[in-house]
Specification:
Helices cover 49% and strands 12% of the residues. The protein is of the alpha/beta class and 370 residues long. Helix 1 (2-10) runs parallel beside helix 3 (29-46). The N and C termini lie far apart (42 Å). 45% of the residues are buried. The model has no long low-confidence stretch (mean pLDDT 93). The structure holds 5'-deoxyadenosine and FE2/S2 (inorganic) cluster (FES).
Length: 370
């Protein structure tokens, strides 16, 4: 079967759902290695031997939502809540700019009150100001109205990440309280597109009660939505959360979670080809070199944390989050050598937009001219 998958990937023939399922079910380590060689080749063809950095600033853990799996959910009373001041966020952005990162990601718990919306609008404009328009801005700030999305886009942000978390609606409803609605979240992905953003989505991999068929459907959903970026990672236990209570043997399944995370990257690269795919911190939480392995399986984006270390321990979405103590200067040294070690180049100073987004717009423009 893998030979057929290889042949198809070399000849741009779309994989079937059964082939995606086959990929996600691979358990033999040698076969997995061969799979990653095939998916890496596709990454190399569409992106090059290149990794783009996005400095992520996790500026607040205040959240109005209550997702059952998440460490910063509203009901978790063991978390000390924080919100960085504007100048602290700008300091992170300036650090990223001075170190030639092409862009930053602003991420926080979800809020939609006017004070928050205005605050973000101002931060976006100021990041543009201090970088003379050069730093790209990705937002990861949850579900908002079209007006809010448009305001933020018009202020200078140009990419937005909103994970659908799982496309199995039944599972979605088990992982969230009743007022967290799958359809609303899906609709937001369309609103983001309409507002002009390059849109990213993704899922958690290896959730309790999630099947391999669910993950195949997630990949089909990414295609149907025609998204530009994918950010996904293994589900990890976060203590004091309801979802964590469903699992008693997490240590025993860590290896499986890790491999499933890598196989999802490979499958998405083979199926969507020219999108940006992040190798997420959740992979590194499971294995020291998990993020590098994610790149080797076909991912091309790394999001180094540039948040002040003072706040990092309060932004724990799950247990064992790495790099809590290392400051950004230490992180960049460590990351750079790690990337060089796997023979990849860092796209310093570039926004690193999704080739899929660029290709899509070229096609539209061609049509307009004809
Ligand atoms: N394990 C893995 N990922 C998680 N996230 C939240 N909680 C967890 C967890 N326990 C992810 C969600 C969210 C992103 C910011 O973090 O997918 O969209
Ligand atoms: Fe904050 Fe889910 S708990 S968005």
């Amino acid at each position: 079967m893998l030979d057929q998958i290889k042949y198809k990937s070399e000849n741009k023939i779309e994989l079937t759902a059964d082939e995606l399922k086959y990929i996600l079910n691979i358990s033999d380590l040698e076969e997995m290695k061969s799979l990653f060689e095939i998916s890496y080749k596709v990454k190399e063809k569409y992106i090059g031997k290149k990794v783009w950095f996005r400095g992520i600033i996790e500026f607040s853990n205040i959240c109005k939502k209550d997702c059952y799996y998440c460490g910063i959910r509203k009901s978790n009373k063991n978390v000390e809540r924080f919100m960085m001041k504007e100048e602290e966020i700008l300091k992170g952005a300036k650090w990223a700019f001075d170190h030639n990162y092409g862009s930053v990601v602003l991420q926080s718990g979800e809020r939609d009150d006017k004070a928050f919306v205005d605050f973000i609008t101002s931060v976006i404009k100021k990041i543009k100001e201090i970088s003379e328009g050069k730093l790209g801005i990705t937002l990861s700030l949850g579900e908002q109205t079209y007006e809010t999305y448009k305001t933020w886009f018009d202020s200078g942000a140009h990419r937005y990440l909103l994970r659908i978390e799982t496309t199995n609606k039944n599972l979605y409803s088990k992982l969230h309280p009743n007022d967290h609605d799958f359809e609303t979240r899906k609709k937001c992905l369309y609103l983001l597109k309409d507002a002009g953003f390059q849109v990213g989505t993704g899922v958690m991999i290896g959730l309790p009660e999630q099947s391999i068929d669910d993950l195949v459907n997630d990949i089909l959903f990414f295609k149907e939505l025609d998204v530009d970026m994918i950010g996904m990672g293994p589900y990890l236990v976060s203590e004091n959360t309801p979802t964590a209570q469903l699992i008693s043997n997490f240590d025993e399944i860590k290896e499986r979670q890790y491999h499933l995370g890598l196989k999802m990257i490979a499958a998405v690269r083979l199926y969507l080809r020219d999108v940006n795919i992040a190798s997420t911190t959740a992979l590194q939480a499971l294995k020291t070199y998990g993020r590098e392995m994610g790149l080797k399986a076909g991912a091309n984006i790394i999001m180094p944390n540039v948040t002040d270390t003072f706040y990092r321990s309060s932004y724990q979405l799950y247990n064992d989050k790495p790099c809590i103590d290392e400051n950004s200067d230490l992180c960049i040294d460590c990351l750079e050598s790690r990337i060089i070690n796997i023979d990849e180049e860092i796209g310093f100073g570039e926004w690193g937009d999704s080739p899929h987004f660029i290709n899509k717009n070229l096609k539209v423009n061609d049509k307009d001219e004809n």
